Amino acid sequence: MTTHIPTPNVYTEYQNKLSSTYFKSLDELQSWYHSVMDHNSNYNFLLDSNKKAKESLSSYHRSTKAETTPTLPNETKDVRTKLMICHDFKGGYQDNEDDNPTGYFPHPTGSRYFLQYPQFIDKFVYFSHHRVSIPPASWINSCHKNGIKCFGTIIFEGQGFNDFEELDKLVEKDNMGQFKLVRMFCYLVDYFGFDGYLLNVETKFSNLKKANDMISFVDSLKSSLHALDNKNELVWYDSYIHPTNRVHYINGVTDLNFNFYRCSDSLFTNYWWTVKNLQENIKNVGLLGVQNNIYVGYDVWGRGTLVGKGGFDSSLACQMIKKYKSNVALFATAWTYEYLGYKNFVENDTRFWIGLFDNESSISSSITPYNSTIFRINDSSFIFYTNFNTGEGKHFFSKGLMIYNNTWVNSNLQSEIPINVHKMDKNGLQLNLNKIDAFNGGSSLEVKYTELIDEDDDYQIFNDQTIKNVNLFNFIQECHFQTVGVKLTYKLNHKTKSIFKLKVKYYIERRYRSISKVRTGYLTIPLTPTHDKWFTIVENFQIQLQNSREYIILESVELNYENTDDLSESLFKCHIMEDSIVTSVIDNEEYEKLINNGLYMGGEFQADDEDWVLIPDGKEIGIGSDENGKRHYSDSTASSKSGWGDRWASGGGGVPILKIGEFAIINANDYPSSGFFQMSIVKSDCVKLIAIAEDENGFIIDWSGNGKTGNLIELLYYLVFINDEFIGTSLTESLIFNSAEFNNTKEVSSHDKSKNKLNDVEKVKIRIDSVDRLGRVVKGEDSVIQLS
Hints:
InterPro entries: ENGase, TIM_ENGase. This is Glycoside hydrolase family 85 protein. This protein is of the alpha+beta class. The protein has three domains: 22-56 and 90-283, TIM Barrel (Alpha-Beta Barrel); 374-667, no CATH class; 684-786, Immunoglobulins (Immunoglobulin-like, Sandwich). Helix content is 17%, strand content 29%. The protein is built from 15 helices and 40 strands. An eight-stranded parallel barrel has the order 3-4-6-7-8-11-12-13, surrounded by five helices. The protein starts with 21 loop residues before the first strand and ends with a strand. The relative contact order is 0.11.
């Protein structure tokens, strides 16, 4: 259907391009606030939709390593040292890093700074030296998807009289006697979807009368943030004291800054502390005070630090802080990228966070990582999904097909990867990220097995039992339903008598008078060769409980590489094992038929065929189910005359390479069913193209009127195509792009072939594909739009 471009909106000074929002002064903030609240006709709210976070923190949950079930009376738990990151990177809002909240397609290098190890982090502060810094939507989304709170920054600096007057404005009141900026700060949190502020005052008020209102202001802002949402927080930086109205760094909590400690949620200390400061903190606010409310600051660049010299010595400071029961605030962890360089960022950042080798001092020596983060559909249902995407890549893939052959960056798309993927292990199962071959996004998890070679046979036997197992994810998550679905997309090039097995570990917990583990089990999926073609399988396991006091706890996911001389077909069935005894094997006629027809080994998967084998749109193998939840397969292949054992043992040689493109676990009240996460098609008559005033190359593609897709809980992201060329992704129902970067356009209608910009053509064809939270792609309708 052809639609026409409406009359362009006129953009204000805040809206002249797609970039993240910040305010250089409080006057700018107030002007923006009144434009939005007054629904100013010159303000384009559609552009703002790309600057707002889509992922809500409340939708995600992760447990600690030691966390199990609710604590019983008189039972104590170890207190985990919490970690706050204050992100100070080249002044903030860097082009090709995070200034564009929808990412960069293309990107000069395909590399940017990001949190490689979010499992360790509790809170993230987006810091810059602008008066008010709003975290870019990409940072908020990425943090929330990993269970991390994301804060903006309010900062006052300088020692000139204009700086003092700017701070005076902070405590101005309206006619009702209320601090007028409090509601504006709270509105920003609600409007853009972040979780509070770091308040940093490194100047002073022009007079004591104004200064006397500061404590009340901080208390009012904290209370108002809590009233908006109880997850919101206000963090006070240790730099200003009252009533003396001056900058003074305490490096802890004393009577000089206790008033700000009391009226904020937590205090971020300055970096120049000593052991004496850590001891006095406990004396002044008590053990519970330091455990819950104090974050001891440390500058990774080493500026003024008295414990270590920053950099990789940061781990020593963390150990000292943990010893005195406080929490850690690391300032400028992008040092591993900014100072050491982006080319070796992965290696250097791994050394900083977890160490390249076992027992190497790192942040992980002091900070216990969280378990993997699950997406909560509701209070009782959840899914876990990863496509091993780091939010950047050399190519972009959809269902195994390369749709974009250029470097790109988009932090919104970052998903979880195993915490040990960059460890430098030399033998056994080795993990790596493959950025040349992926299923959805920019990378896949590559697993290789290298035989351990050692002259000591006893040593080899001992290690052979351990190096053939690798942990991928940990959960400690209660399953409220007995059906647990597992989805896996992988490719495997190897054919020997050894076999990869994916095992989802769980245990049964009995809660009656005491809490005890009564059984341990595994949901086991053998991974058979696919001749290096992508294959998707979904298996729904039914876990049996003996009584109403038993509960299923999802524990972990691991990968095994096992030798076997048993080539019987039963070996390759998915099954449940409990306490090392097979208590139930899924009797699944369709699954046996799938194996016997040679879908893994024969049929379409010919060894001399190097092309991708793509799963048809909406027909992923093993993903279907009827109204009763019975699984079915949507593809079939020609039957093979050879037996399973013959097919398995044929071929072989070389190093076995397993690539995992995506992995999911589902435990939900309406799963499996045909309507579970059923995305609707983006229809052609819902797509509009809007020109941006004051930017001849700027356009907005909008499909917000598409009905059911407005329920974005099911959506992971959209894929946007113009004239069948992929141009980018979006988490919202619109995308802003610059047509000057869109060259070599394939025109819908015939006209001058020298024209290669959207501005120069008469018609364009737009298609929006939807990708749901289980990685399934729903192809949209083509929309042909008249440009003139």
